[in-house]
Design a protein that fits this description.
Blueprint (H helix, E strand, L loop, with lengths): L3 H10 L5 H14 L5 H6 L6 H21 L5 H15 L3 H7 L8 H10 L9 H14 L5 H7 L8 H10 L8 H17 L3 H14 L5 H8 L7 H11 L8 H13 L5 H14 L5 H6 L9 H14 L5 H10 L3 H46 L1
Helix pairs in contact: 1-2, 2-4, 4-5, 5-7, 5-8, 8-10, 10-12, 11-12, 12-14, 13-14, 13-15, 14-16, 15-16, 16-18, 18-20, 19-20
C-alpha cells in the first residue's frame, strides 16, 4: 500500500499535462485502492486520451474489488464506508450520468450490485444498521434487479427486524416498474404489510410506497386505512390519506368512495390526517367536497394554520367559483401568513380560469353568430 505522501502526489499528477504521468498516477492509485481516491480516479474517465481513460477504468475495477472485500470486514465502519462508495459506483442517476458522462455510469458493475444484495441476508450481515444502509444504497442505485431481494426483506419470516422491513417497504416505492406484473407483485406485498404489521412506521412506509407506485389496486385498502374506526394509528391514517391522492383511481365507484373517505377524514382528530386529506382531495380533482373544504377555512372550525393553508391550496386546484368569497375573506383576515398566501394564490387561479372560460365562450358565440350571419347572407343572395 502506498504512503499518504505518494497518494497525494499521484492525485496531483492526475492533472499533469503529460499523459504518461497521469497513467502512472492511476496505476499507483488503483493498487492503493483507498476510499478517498475514488472521485479523482472517476474524473479521469473523462480524459481525452484513450490510454488514460482505459487506465482509469482499470483502476476503478481495482478500487471496486477492494470495496467488495471490505463488505466482509469485521469493523462496522469499514463496511459502512464500503457500502457508501459502492453506491456511487453503481449509480444510474441521470444527473450523475449527465455530469460525468454516460460511460461513467454504473462503474461498479454487476459484481458490486450482487455483493450489496448479498449483505441483505441476516445470516451474513448481523448488524441491523448495515442492512438498512444496504437497502438505502439499493434504493439510490435504482436497479430493478434489487426488487426481488427487497421483497424478501419485506417478509418477516426472512427479515426478523421490523426497522429493516420498514426500509425495504420505503425503498420499493422508488423504482420504475416497467413490467405491470412486477408492479402488481410489489403492490400485493405492500398491501399485506399494511394489513398485518403492527408497527406504525412500517405500515406507514408501506402506504407511502403504495402512493408512489400509484397502482389502482391499492385504493380499497388505503380507503379502509383512512377511517379512524378501522385504523387507530394516526401516522398510518395520514400516510394512507396522502397515498390516496396519488393513486390513479378511474372515475366511478372507487373514486366516489375515496372522495367520501377523505371528506370524512377532514374531521379526524389528528391534524396530520386532516392536512393530507385536504391535499389529496385537491389532487383527485372532484368538486363534491368543496363545501366541506370551504367550512374548514374558518379558524373556529379548523384551528391548525397549516391545514387551512392546504385547504386553500386544494380549493385553488379544484377551481370551483363557489369558493371565491370564502377565499377572499380568508386572504384578508386569516391570522396565519401561509394561509393568506395560499388563499391569494387560489383566488388568482380560480379567477384566471374563470376569465379564460368566459373569453372562450365569447369567442365561441362570436364564431357561431358569424357563421349564422354568413349563412343568412348566402340565402338572401340566392333569392
Amino acid at each position: 500500500m502506498a504512503t499518504d505522501e505518494e497518494v497525494y502526489r499521484a492525485q496531483r499528477d492526475l492533472k499533469s499535462d503529460d499523459p504518461e504521468t497521469r497513467i502512472a498516477a492511476l496505476q499507483l492509485l488503483g493498487r492503493d485502492g483507498r476510499p478517498s481516491i475514488f472521485w479523482g480516479v472517476r474524473e479521469a474517465l473523462k480524459d481525452a486520451k484513450i490510454e488514460v481513460h482505459d487506465e482509469a477504468s482499470h483502476a476503478l475495477v481495482q478500487i471496486r474489488d477492494r470495496r467488495i472485500e471490505e463488505l466482509s470486514d469485521p469493523d462496522f465502519w469499514v463496511r459502512s464506508k464500503a457500502i457508501w462508495e459502492l453506491t456511487h459506483m453503481c449509480t444510474t442517476d441521470p444527473w450523475i450520468k449527465s455530469f460525468l458522462g454516460i460511460e461513467t455510469a454504473n462503474v461498479g458493475g454487476d459484481e458490486a450490485l450482487n455483493a450489496l444484495i448479498a449483505r441483505l441476508d441476516p445470516a451474513i450481515e448481523t448488524e441491523i444498521f448495515t442492512r438498512c444502509q444496504v437497502i438505502n444504497a439499493l434504493k439510490e442505485i435504482g436497479d430493478t434487479r434489487s426488487i426481488e431481494p427487497l421483497l424478501r426483506s419485506l417478509n418477516p419470516k426472512y427479515e426478523p427486524e421490523w426497522s429493516v422491513r420498514s426500509m425495504a417497504a420505503d425503498a420499493l416505492g422508488w423504482f420504475n416498474y416497467s413490467s405491470w406484473l412486477q408492479a402488481i407483485r410489489v403492490v400485493k406485498s405492500l398491501l399485506r404489510t399494511l394489513a398485518r404489521e403492527k408497527e406504525a412506521p412500517l405500515s406507514a412506509d408501506a402506504a407511502d410506497s403504495l402512493g408512489n407506485i400509484r397502482h389502482p389496486l391499492a385504493a380499497p385498502a388505503l380507503i379502509s386505512r383512512v377511517n379512524w374506526r378501522r385504523e387507530h394509528r394516526a401516522s398510518v391514517r395520514s400516510s394512507s390519506a396522502l397515498a390516496l391522492g396519488k393513486v390513479e383511481i378511474k372515475p366511478g365507484f372507487w373514486k366516489w368512495i375515496a372522495v367520501r373517505a377523505l371528506t370524512g377524514a377532514l374531521r379526524d382528530e389528528d391534524a396530520g390526517v386532516r392536512e393530507y386529506a385536504a391535499l389529496s382531495l385537491g389532487n383527485i380533482g372532484d368538486a363534491k367536497p368543496v363545501k366541506h373544504l370551504m367550512r374548514m377555512l374558518d379558524p373556529k372550525k379548523e384551528p391548525n394554520g397549516r391545514v387551512r393553508s392546504l385547504v386553500a391550496s386544494s380549493l385553488g386546484k379544484l377551481g370551483d367559483e363557489r369558493a371565491v368569497d370564502a377565499l377572499r375573506r380568508t386572504a384578508g383576515v386569516d391570522t396565519d401568513y401561509f394561509t393568506r398566501v395560499e388563499a391569494q394564490r387560489a383566488l388568482v387561479s380560480i379567477l384566471e380560469a374563470s376569465a379564460l372560460r368566459a373569453d372562450e365562450d365569447s369567442r365561441s358565440r362570436s364564431r357561431f353568430f358569424g357563421k349564422a350571419a354568413g349563412a343568412v347572407r348566402a340565402v338572401l343572395a340566392v333569392q
